[in-house]
Amino acid sequence: MTPVAAGSVALAAGLDRLVAEPPATVHPVAWLGRALGPLDRRWTHPRLVGVLVALAVPLLAAGAVAAAVVAAARVDPLVGGVVAGLVCFVATSRRMLIDEARTVVALGETDLPAARERLRALAGRNADSLSAGEVRSAAVESAAENLADGLVAPLAGFALLAPVSLPLAAAAAAWIKAVNTLDSTFGYRSKPMGWAPARLDDAVMWLPARASAALLAIAGGRPAALRSARSSARVPDSPNSGWPMATLAILLGVRLEKPGVYALPGGTALPTRADADRGVAVVSRAGWLAFGLAGVIALC
């Protein structure tokens, strides 16, 4: 079964390179986001609702995916591998992240208002007053952070369970993606029901965030950057996002900053266009390393 699982990872990587993302109209993650919409309202006991949602939604997603892979594998093991690869593909994102970050960085040189507007697809912050350097910083930060939750985390879940069971591996990727989707939908201080989804996401992302930082350090050719980033990784409020962002700041030798919130001191100046392009390229290489490592683990 493990060669089939490795083939599933290869299929996901190939589709990421060729397609980037399925259209939103047929993307299961987009379907989940829309299905969660009615839950975003006032509740009498919001924390209890949040706990129930955090428990139920990822389990339902994982169960549906596992059942689909089991049914496909009964037709033929290779068909099961294809379905698992499709699950892995829709649960991960590399090329779209890289393309969006590159577009924002490029627009920052020629059309700053357009860059600020495009940044909204990457970073959850008010971009209206950001300078060009701050826009570039946000694009680089978001590329590093989303490497962890958008690629490394679901890939890790898939790869670690692939030697045990292909349906369980696909279910793990779907479960992690659902947890992350819940956090991105409800995990804000302004949403009382978001406490449980946010805490669950923090727990799930603990290892992938640090693994992503290690992949960035390797992809940047400076493994020691991970150790150098340890102190500044704790600067952001999040227990996880600081690790890949601080590591990339060290690699680039720049200051990555969310104005009024945090500054990651890899250097003194905000990233230039060349710095930002180099940072996005490092994230892209780290993404390919993640796919390769997941394929190797799936073979074990």
UniProtKB/TrEMBL annotation:
- InterPro entries this protein is in? Cobalamin_biosynth_CobD/CbiB
The family database entries (Pfam families) matched by this protein are listed as: CobD_Cbib
Question: HAMAP family under this entry?
Answer: CobD_CbiB
Organism the protein comes from: Haloplanus litoreus
| Name of the protein | Probable cobalamin biosynthesis protein CobD
- General function of this protein: Converts cobyric acid to cobinamide by the addition of aminopropanol on the F carboxylic group.
Listed pathway(s): Cofactor biosynthesis; adenosylcobalamin biosynthesis
Swiss-Prot/TrEMBL GO biological process terms: cobalamin biosynthetic process
Q: Which UniProt keywords apply?
A: Cell membrane, Cobalamin biosynthesis, Membrane, Transmembrane, Transmembrane helix
What topology does the record note for this protein and the membrane? Multi-pass membrane protein
Return one GO MF term.
ABC-type vitamin B12 transporter activity
What is the predominant subcellular site recorded for this chain?
Answer: membrane
Query: What's the encoding gene here?
Result: cbiB
Q: Which residues cross the membrane?
A: 48-71
